[in-house]
Amino acid sequence: MAYGCRVRISVLGHQSVHTPRGFSVLPDIQKLRARVVSRLAAAALGSLLLVAGCATSPPTNDPEALAAYREANDPYESFNRTVFDLNMNLDRFVLKPVAYVYRNVVPDPIQGWISNALANLRSLIVLANDLLQGEWDRANNTFVRMLMNTSFGLGGVLDIATEFGVPRHDEDFGQTLAVWGMNEGPYLVLPLLGPSNPRDLLGFVVDTAFDPSTYIVNVAGVDAFGPARFAASTVSGRAARYDQINELQRTSLDFYAAVRSLYRQRRNDEIRQGRLAAATPGLMPEPFALGLEPSPATASDR
Q: pLDDT digit string (tens) for 76-100?
């Protein structure tokens, strides 16, 4: 039995502030950072307000339902399933066909280069979170990888570091918050971004708002960099999980519940690996990753 809730959506306004253009790029960076942070914070706040006003639990005289409800930790399941269905329709009619063409038309080496370049762009974020978690050895590996691949790997297109025995791992601020002791909170499904929770949503906002590569490229006047990077990461990640998602859909009695379970397993594994061992390569967050790791024979391993 699913316990839903009524959803009230508030629209948060945004006021632009215009300042005269100077000769220094610092005001541009500050203005860009403020704009990005304000928009992402508004989106995060809107989602959290939605969550805060929308909790419904089973009656206390139904212990089995109450136990299942607590185990699922999904008090907004009705709303989440609606967003999940919207995301999967978008995947079915847009993303999946694009990913099919990408994985069957784009040569494997080029897919690998794209995956490598996307991972290298996250190096500073990974390094910052390694340091915030006190993972000095992993931070050293990240720094060495970034230096080697950027300098000798054509800006990260070639993964020279892995060939020299410096493996890739991933970190994000959501994992850092977990290491610091913050609970994940209730399960959420976000438009376009897919499975999440308040802790990972906050981590995504922080990682996105303070990603140095975004500001460097935007100051250079390449306005399309952000959308292009998001699109490339989305298509590359979906193509890497193409067969896995098909198989999961085919074999799952409840695809939504299966994705919820796999997402939590994956995030818990990433958090433990962040403290104990080298994480499985992957980009995070990836829209429509659905809690799945890339197939062993994906472009990222080529």
A: 999 999 999 999 999 999 999 999 9
The label of the residue with tokens 């193409």 reads 242
- How far, in Å, are 25, 128, 172, 266 from residue 81 at the CA level? 45, 34, 26, 20
Which candidate, 96, 48, 61, 49, places its Cα nearest to that of 288? 96
6: three-class secondary structure by DSSP: coil
Cβ pair 112, 287 in contact under 8 A: no
Q: Where are the alpha helices (DSSP H) in the chain?
A: 26-52, 63-72, 77-90, 96-105, 108-121, 123-132, 136-152, 160-163, 173-179, 198-209, 212-219, 225-240, 242-251, 255-276
Whether residue 20 lies inside any domain: the answer is no
Model confidence, pTM = 0.73
In a domain, 2, yes or no: no
Q: Please state the domain count of the chain.
A: 1
Look at residue 59 and tell me if it is in a domain: yes
Residue 280 placed within a domain: yes
Tell me if residue 190 falls in helix, strand or coil: strand
* Residue scoring higher pLDDT (222 or 6): 222
Residue ranges making up the domain that contains 62:
29-301
Here the tokens at position 32 are 């860009």
Structure-model confidence comparison of residues 107 and 227, the more confident one: 107
3-class DSSP state for residue 196?
Answer: strand
* Three-state secondary structure call for residue 1: coil
